[in-house]
Structures are given as structure tokens and as C-alpha cells.
Amino acid sequence: xxKLIVASKNKGKIAEVRQILQGLYEIVPMEEIGITADxxxxxxxxxxxxxxxxxxxxxxxxLAALSDDSGLCVDALGGAPGVYSARYAGxxxxxxxxNALLLKNLxxxxxxxxxxxxxxxxxxxxxxxxxxxxxxxxxxxxxxxNNGFGYDPLFYCTEIxxxxxxxxxxxxxxVSHRARxxxxxxxxxxxxxx
Length: 194
Hints:
The chain has 5 helices and 7 strands, in the order βαβαβαββββαα. By secondary structure, it is of the alpha/beta class. It is globular.
């Protein structure tokens, strides 16, 4: 089975990638091969940031690298937090503060429609591929459940009729933005070796 290095430190993302692509590739987190650098996301789109991270890991290792850049886009906030989802409250990865700021910014707002968007990029000696996926929903008034990560407890997924925070991993992965992007990428890579 071919190795695929995941250009992320986010354990939740790595677990989802592993579960969705199981049996297709040997999924290896970048830290397991000694890459601990924080790759700066300087792009203005999810696609640009995914490419930046995948290229960096590929250039460091010479191995096929996969990266996801994803986030929450809220209509009433003009698409924010968007590409800044992980650092919405300032510092990267402060999930509690990000969720609190989102609720504060939506106080008194009735239109709470939103979507999760994911762009996945794969860079290897054979080339570069990018695919995207999204899932529609709305932002709750308070968190529900402890499953998933990030904004999952605030995101009510209309397709499964429940928040991602109480959905099982299988329920979420059946409809999630990341699963859809990975499946689209898989279709692009059909019958190709990395």
C-alpha cells in the first residue's frame, strides 16, 4: 500500500482522513516522519492553503502529501470565519474561544445558515490535484454534544438532522465536507499511482 503523508497536526482531521481513505493508502501523520513545523497558511482560499501545506511536506520528504484546509462559512457574517476558522479568535487552534466568538458575533441574528467547506490537495512526483467538498447547515444558539472537533458542536447538519457534535463519526463522515472532498480527490486519482 502506498504511503500518503497527511500535512496536518490536527488529530481529528487525521482520524477522519484515515477512516475515509482506509484500505486505499497507508496514512502517515507528518509528525510521525519528523515534520513538526507549522506551515504558514498565507493563501486567501481553502484551495491555496491546502496546496501550500501539501507542497511543503512533499518538498521535505519526496513522498506523496495530502493536506486539507477547511472551515466554516457563515452567511450572516459574509462567509466568516472562512479560511481563518482555526484562528478566528486570534491564536490557532483555540476551539473554545473560536466557538464563543462565533456565538457572540451571531447574537441576535436570525439567519444562521452556514456551510463547512473543505479543499484537499495532494502533491506527489506525478503532479498536483485539488478537490473540494461542502456540507450545508446552520449555527445553533448553544453547543450540543462533544463529538468531532472545532465548530462541530455548533453546526446543525440539515442532511442528517442533527448537530455534528452528537453525530457518530460514521454519520458525519457519510456527509461531511472533508469526506466529499476526499471522495472527489479519489475520483481524480482513479487508476493512478502516486
